[in-house]
Amino acid sequence: MEKVRLAVDFGGTRVKYGITRDGVVLAQDNFEVIDRLSFAAHAESLREGFESLLAQLGLSLSNCEGLGIAVPCLVSADCKRVTRSFQKFEDLVGFDIQAWSQETFALACDIENDARAALVGEWRYGAGMGMDNLFMLTLGTGCGTAVLLEGRPIRGFSGMAGNLGGHSITHRGGEKCWCGSRGCLEAQVASWALEDLARKEPHFTGSALSQVDEIDYLAVFTLAAEGDALAVQLRDKALDTWAAALINGVHFFDPQKIIIGGGIMASADVILPALQRILDEQAIQVAEPAQIVAAGLGDGAALVGV
After folding, report:
1. Which family does it belong to (predicted)?
2. Is residue 306 part of a domain?
3. Confidence (pTM)
4. Which of 135, 157, 155, 159 minimizes the C-alpha distance to 147?
5. pLDDT, tens digit, for every residue of 111-158?
6. Are the CB atoms for 204 and 230 separated by under 8 Å?
7. Which of 30, 141, 209, 281 is the 20 to 30 A CA-CA neighbour of 12?
């Protein structure tokens, strides 16, 4: 029987895991993050989850060829260790993930930045198939980026190349980011910052956003379409800021295609044409203009890319 692979994607709010083979997720499930600072707090649930999925497929660990872990952290260039965390799963820094994988599953383990894992998945099996130069922006709780250059994911000297687009400075002197800088893309428009940004506005109480259960981008785009002034303001700021990141990506890496993924893409019908228009108007491009497309694999991209 052809071997399968265990894969897990640690997100800011949920841990997604599955059994994959040749770009297909054969079975998957997820559970809620109970402590975003701790990998260890979720290790046993992950072990039990994989055992359950394997049993559903009539398989065992002997049918597995390895384990892939996608994390919202920086990883070493050899994909063997976490080098820096960002207020999530901080106990992974310095943790021997290889030893844990061997002890828990008797499997070798690769660990990858989640944005790069999603890019690799889309390149091999999704919206980036057939392309050698790609830029991907993932809009989830935060903002992740990754780059494929001349047919290879770039990693750089330490492994972080292409992964810090969320902390590129789009508004010098702007909002304070938890990374210590000001004006980062994330601090200006990330989902985690959105509620505070909305509540700071003087006309917040007169906006329909003050009445919703959760201030997220689904609410922003929905109410903006209805003409709510604050929602329009926040929507347009987000579009302009995301566009700035894409323009920088084009100028730095010269991609053939730009892929945008993440939960915010529920509003892709508004986001994609707006970003494409700004990119076409403002980016310097000497070949065919880079096309902006939605990710094709949804939540499964990182699972098949890690």
Report:
1. Belongs to the ROK (NagC/XylR) family.
2. no
3. 0.93
4. 135
5. 999 999 999 999 999 999 999 999 999 998 889 999 999 999 999 999
6. yes
7. 209
